[in-house]
Amino acid sequence: MATAAKVGSNFTGVQMSPKDTKRLLEAVNEIHPDVPGDERGMLVERTERSAEAGRIGSVPVPGSAKGMLKTGFDMMKGKSPEVFLDKLGERLAFERNGVRLYEAMIAKARSLDAGSELVGMLQHLRDEEFEHMLLVRQAIESLGADPTAQTPCADVAGVMAMGIMQVLTDPRTNLAQCMNALLTAELADNAAWELLIELAQAAGHPNIADSFVKAKTQEDDHLVKIKTLMRRDLVMQTR
Amino acid sequence: METISGILDNKGTPLEKQTFTWKEMAGQPISKLDDDAFTRVRIILMNGVETDALRLKHGIARFNRELRLPLAEIRRVEQHQATMVNWLIGADHSPLETTVAYEQVAIEVTAAVAQNEPDPYQGQTYRFGLLEDFDHLYRYSAMLDRLEGKDANNILQGYTDIVPGRKTSEHHRHPENDIRDNYEKNSAALITKIHAALITGAEYQTHDYYMNIGPLFADPLARQLYAEIASVEEQHVTQYGALSDPSESHMEKWLVHEAMEVYLYASCAEQETNPRIKAIWERFLDYELGHLNVACEWFKKLEGRDPAEVLAGPLPKMVEFKSQRDFVRQVLAAEVNLRTAGPAYVDKAKEPQSSLDYRNHLASQGLASDIVSAGYQWAPGGELMRKAS
Q: Can you tell me the ipTM of this complex?
């Protein structure tokens, strides 16, 4: 694998411009803040705005009333079935995004000539993310809900994933940086499956919970693989 | 370059040879970390110049059937020049980091222009606007630190001070106090016309950028901060736009704009430190000479005059892309309390009631620029580093 870091003319720090920094600090010492207070004012304002704000959106009504009454559908149960549905929507969005993350990672690995073994492994992980996506879709459909709807948690998951995708698709990022981005996704994914199984049980859907156990096991494997790869590569370069 | 008309013999690259591919337009960006901050300053500035070239030519085309095709032909090249230039900004710049860079452009370029400007009133106007953009940099730097936990100096690289200027909350004026007196086209120096076209274009770009990215933020304070500062940028476009003579014909304005583009690309090419980017500036300098020559031909045809009537006169040295810290500090010390009454510059105590009423209402439900910068003092690595030591 390519070296994860190189020495060069990075201009961003103060050590690169000692004279300018001295002048800048002189200005800071001479010209003081013109508004009293500190960052706590932002906290107050943000709290107020959160209290005033509406919501990101809603969970769609699960299916048609007619659809829901059909036999074969696992009726929506529990105190707040929409909470479970929202999290299912989130997982579907995350896994769908995960497939694209691995596809971007495969392109990166190929460009870095990282070896067919790595590409093969990434392909395998990508395919499992795809399986998980289908699994969640099936679970949503079994509840008579619409897997094509973007639930609020799905929307927020998309916001969270934006940075990870930016890292993976930037042609300038290296393998270690991309592995780190994937690790962020896999850590969240792993915890999310664990929670989802618990939620399925709490919502009274043992069949769904059982069907998710395999996905969780595979996600455990993803996490180990990404962590190991990253650690091995970086430790080797650092030693 | 001592005169523009002196280089009219150089026909530049013919329009039909000004070609691009999509891949080169969406080419490799500069390094946020390893390139000099002034490379980014030039990139942002020239994107502003090119987008303003498009804007002006669209405006002219609305009023002139005969020019529609030649203007469209040049605009197509300018569109692609703008793309190639703007796409040099890497995706690892957050919108807020790019904002800090935009303010660095506004400060360092306006300061350079203010010192080169021979007309005292126009020079005063640049100094006036300068202190406002200088303050915007401080507010945005506080926002960057307190929102993203980043140090604005990573972008500024020590060239530009991060301290309060004329307070942003006091920039909002009634429109009647944003109109400026214009230069007289027959007596103004060419460089005066070029400066007005340049700074208007640069501010326009900044305004449009803030209007586009402001809603991308989730944080209500960041959203409001962009709203507050975008409104000031609209005032700046108003004030700088008022500096040019409204009696200039469309053709005269076109000529001045092309001359400005030539002058700026020449300045960029002269001072660029990144060889790959320098090659772009040199290539586009030749393109601009081509555009200027087309404009001259149409000027002769439509107005039956010699372009030298508009483009004559000496040009000072190139725009200097360097830290203008000393000049900015002097202006800050001397002019921070200036305000405007109509087109006149007056002391704070004489600011018209119209502006005070206008801004008091706007601020009556709170000011993000005050909230985000309360007590903010820059420190190397950001304010948390100082608090920790």
A: 0.92
